[in-house]
Every structure is written in structure tokens, then in C-alpha cells.
Task: structure prediction
Amino acid sequence: MSYVPILLVQQILPEDIQSIDVMETKIVAIAVYANKSGVPLTVVTRRLFDGDKQFYFPTEVTEGAAKTRIVYQHTLAQWRELLESLTLPSAPDALKQLMIPMFLYLKEKYPAVLAGIEYDQAFDPAQFAEILPVQ
Result:
């Protein structure tokens, strides 16, 4: 993998973390790739588009990109289930590239919810998608 995608993640505010309904709160992440040919097939098959809530997509972040976007929108409970399998050594590298940094970001915000999940620590951090929290 030569290109590292940007992973725009819906900003998680302190009041979101304290929410009683934390497991049902939807968290959106958008992977942005430099060009369409750079999107691995294993990632394309995980597409989910949901028009319930608008997500601010800053043009300054994507200027010059082909704006290939892969949208993930899951509740925290769904993220946990997804991250349990897509951060393991057996997961495809193209998915680990997105999911390990997402896991680390969410684990920092919700440590109790994501406790006990193991991830492929041998996966090269230089290949991690860059996380950019946006509102």
C-alpha cells in the first residue's frame, strides 16, 4: 500500500461520551482516497450510505482528491462488533489500514466500551489512515 487515506471522523464531544444512550449514538467515518483506482475492493464492499444526518465534508481537506468516499455509519455497539474482527491479523490490510486507527481513536473516547479488543500490533503504523475529527 503506497497511499495512506484520510479518515474523517465525526467529532465526539465530551457530552456525547457522557450520554446515557452511548451505545445507540451513531458515529460516522468517511474514508477519502486520492483516486478511484486506489480504493481496494475489500473496502468498497463495506460501503454504507445513510442520508439521515448531514455530515460536513470540508473541501480544504479533499482539495485535489478525486473525492472517492467510503462512508461508515454505525452505532458504538456496531463499531465494537466491526472492530473486533477487522483489526485482527487475519483481516485484509486495506481494512486494517482504516479500522486500527479508528479503533484506537474510539478506544481513547470510550475505553470501557472497547475494552478487551485485541488488534494487529504488528501492522505498520505508517500505513494507518490519518484520522481527522470534523464536525
